[in-house]
Amino acid sequence: MKATNPLCNSNSLLVIIKKTTIPRKFSYLLALIVLASLILIWVYNKKPEKEMIVIEKEKSEEIIPENKTEAEVIETPKSEPEVIAEPFFTETTAGEEKLPRKILIDVPFTSQAPLSKWDAYHEEACEEASLLMAEYFLKNKKLTPAIAEKEIQALIAYEIKNTKGYEDSTAKETAKLGADYYGLKNLRVVYDFTSVDLKKYLAQKKPIIVPAAGRLLGNPNFTAPGPLYHNLVLVGYDGDTIITNDPGTRKGQGYRYDIETLYGAIHDFPGDKNKIEKGRKAMIIIE
């Protein structure tokens, strides 16, 4: 219902007052008092509404940025928080695992000629030296040149007595030697893998023994032209560089190869070292 403005009924009020028995001089005074009272009541009732409007406007001004309308503020979507890639991990494509950028496993090192005696036995002792590094890694034992020389001589003697000999073993035969001589039951031979698989196993802190076409490695520390067939231990990586303990040189501790160069050189012994590049991709995981 629409409210009636009391100011619009002032004439009616005077007529009513005139018809009463109140003396004329008091009637005007009474009318003025009543009229003033009605005006005050009307002003009072209107004041809160005006104040409420002002407050709402002030609140609206607080949330609307400068130079933007209210509609623009409401329709502007909230921005998502910026996601920063973890620097510890490499970039990956769909389906690939996230791998640490760098891994280094503390595997004790020995060359295959610990006392720098490169005779016929030591020239062929890369498999034995690689197994020796695996054994001392798993047993968490310190490896010195004197200990390494003694161990390699014992391994060669065991092979001469119990196997086909100490020269040129396949990955499977090398793993079996580790199991038979050292009791290493956690050497696993894996075939036909990719270069990324090397990093995946190393990221799990599992060193790897790989057979290789030695001359494809391009190691300048090898006596030229380098060995036709060779074994070495992978102990980590840094980006696309594989870190190795290469027993083919006294400078082999922590020696680095480009991952594609190393992967291209990996070949299992095919029965004839002159056909080494026809050998299958193979590696021995030290678990």
CATH topology of the largest domain: Cathepsin B, Chain A
The profile of the biggest β sheet is: 7 strands, antiparallel
Strand fraction: 5-15%
The counted number of beta strands is 7
Count of structural domains: 2
Element order: H for helix, E for strand? HHHEHHHHEHEHEEEHE
Shape: rod-shaped
Going by CATH, the architecture of the largest domain would be Alpha-Beta Complex
Cα end-to-end separation: 89 Å
So, the CATH homologous superfamily of the largest domain?
Cysteine proteinases
Per DSSP, the total helix count is 10
Contiguous runs where pLDDT drops below 50 for at least 5 residues: 48-95
- The helicity comes to 40-55%
Computed over alpha carbons, the radius of gyration is 46 Å
The secondary-structure class comes to alpha+beta
Average pLDDT works out at 81
Instruction: Kindly report the oligomeric state of this protein.
Output: single chain
Q: Any idea of the CATH class of the largest domain?
A: Alpha Beta
Which descriptors would you attach to this protein?
single chain, 287 residues, alpha+beta, Cathepsin B, Chain A, 2 domains, 7-stranded antiparallel beta sheet, 10 helices, 7 strands
